[in-house]
Fold these 3 entries.
Entry 1:
Amino acid sequence: MKTPPKGAAFQRFVTRTGEVERVLEISADGDLFQVRPVPGEGEPNPRGSIVQWTVLGHGRHLFLIDGKPHLARMHRSGAGEYRIDVGGAERIVRAADEISARANRQESARAASGPIEILAPMPGTIIQVMVSEGDPVVRGQALFTMEAMKMQNEITAPMAGVITELRVEPGQAVEARFRFCRIEP
C-alpha cells in the first residue's frame, strides 16, 4: 500500500458525531489520505490511519482503511454535514476546518443566550410534529420528523426552552430554511 509523501502538509478538521467532537489532521495525495486524530487533554497520542477513498457512484464509496475494505453510503445532508451508512449503522457527521468549527461554536454560544429559530435544513415534507405551541423542551429533544430525498431526518432542539410561533403541521412541504418555530429560553 502506498503512503502519502513524507512531510506532506496536514490540515486540521473538526468532526462531530452526535455529541462527540474530534480534531483530525489530514494530508492528501490524490485519493490517498493520511488521517491522524489529535489527542485531547489527558488522552494518549492516538495512532493515525492510511485511508484510500474510491467513489463508486450513486452515493456509494469504498474506503480502504489501513488496507481493510469498508463499503459505505454517504450523502451530504447540509452544509458540512454528511450521513454515512457503514454496514447498516448510520451516523451523521459534521465536518469543518478548524477555524469554521471555532466560529460555529461561538455562534452557537451566542444563540443559546436568546431565542433561537428552528429552520429546515433542506427542502422536504413534514412527517411528524412532536411538539405543540407552549411546550417546554430540553436540548436534544425530537421536535419534528422530516422526509427529504427518501430519508427521514429528525429535527431536534439545540437548547432547552419553550416552543413559540409553531408554523408547521404533518404533510406540509417546506423549502430549505423554512422557519418551523422559535425556542425561547
Entry 2:
Amino acid sequence: MARPRPEPLPPEERAREICLRALERRMHSRRELALKLRQKGIPEEVGEAVLDRLAEVGLVDDEAFARMYVTSRQRSRPRGHRGLLAELLRKGIERETAAAILEELEEEEDPVETARRAVAAKLRSLSGRPPRERKRKAMDFLVRRGFGYDVAARALEDLEEEGEEEAP
C-alpha cells in the first residue's frame, strides 16, 4: 500500500529547514545560504526574512564565518592576504569586514612565515631541479596563492639562507 505524500511545507518553513540543514554540516556566509535558497526555488523575500531571523539568533554571522574560514584555511592550505581577500569576497563577505579580519591575522602571524609554510612542500617536490628553476617555480606558486612579490621573495631568501647554513 502506497504511503500518502506529505503536504509540501510552506516556503518559510522550507527555507528555514534548508538553511538549518546546511548549517548542521558547517558554517556558511549569508550569501552562500541565500544562493542555496535561490537554487531551491525559495522566493527572495522569503529567503531574506528567514536569513534575517537566523542572523538575529546568531546562526548566520558573516564576521564569525570569515574568522573561522581564515583560521581553517591558514592551517590547511596557507594563502596570502590577496588570496584570502579574494576568497572571502567570493563567499559574500563585505570588503571592510574581510579587510579587518585579515589585518588582525597579519598582526597575529608573520606573512613571511606563512609563505614559508605554504611553499615548503612545493620545494620538496622541486628537489633535483636547477636552483633558478626551483626559485622561479616556488615564486610563481606563492604569487598564485595570493602572496605579494616582496613577501614571497623574503620567504624564499630565508629558506635559501637556511639551506646554505645546513650544507657542509
Entry 3:
Amino acid sequence: MSVERENAVVNNSINLRNNFKYSQTNDYFDPSAISKVEILDSDGVTVLQTITGASIIKDAVGRYYVVASAISTPKTIYDKWYFTPAIGATAITKTNTCVVWATAAEAGTETLSTDNASLLTAVNNAIAARLNGGAVDSYTIGGRDLKYIPLADLFKMRDNLRREIAAGAGGARNYISFRRPS
C-alpha cells in the first residue's frame, strides 16, 4: 500500500508530492525538467533511493510526485528534487522533509520541537541541504526572485544554539567581583 507523505508509516511506500512555487508570490510554476529525485536518510546526506524518468509522475492538477520505497524504521527522511526551472536555466534542487511514523495513529501529529538540541539538528540539516544543493542564496525565474535564509544566518543560528546548549549543560562562565563595602 502507498500512503501520502503526511501519513507515512513504516513498511508502506510513500507518495512524495512536490509543488514548485515562487517563494515571494506563492505562484506555482511548471519546471522545464526534473532530472531525478533522491530519497535521503535522516542525516540529509546518505542516499537511500534514486528515482528518475517515468517514475517521476505529473498528476492531472500539475503536481509532481514519486513513490518512495517503504522505510523499515521510524525516522525523518528527505526527498531532494533536482530540476531545471526553465529552458536554459541552471539546474537547482529543492529538499522536503517527511516523517515516517511507527504507527498510523502517530502519523501527522508532529509539531515543531523548540528544544535547542532539536533546533540545532534542524539548522544543521538545513546547512547540509543548502551545501549539497550548491549553496545558492537566491535566484530569479521569469523575473521573480526566490530567496533562502543566507548561509551566514544559518551559521549564526547554529553558533547561538550551540552556546545555549553549552550554557544549559554548565558550559557557561560566570564572573563575580567583590567590592569593599562603603
